[in-house]
Amino acid sequence: MIARICWVSGRVQGVFYRGSAQARARELGITGYARNLEDGRVEVLACGERTRVEQFVAWLWVGPTAAHVTAVEVVEHAPDPWPAGFVTS
User: pTM for the whole thing?
Assistant: First the structure.
């Protein structure tokens, strides 16, 4: 099990990015969150089995059809406590 925190840049707010990320995370069994940041980015925490987290992080580059992702910064993370589900805020 691994955890990654990601900051997604581009046109990612107001285009159903967080909701789409939540749906994709649930399909993959990923826990964590997606939330808007004041600077226009979306912050995403992804926790789960390595292959599934890697698939999810690759999806972050795509997002929903209305999004235009220009960058995804990814770093290792150790959440405490480990999230039980995937939420948006």
Answer: 0.95
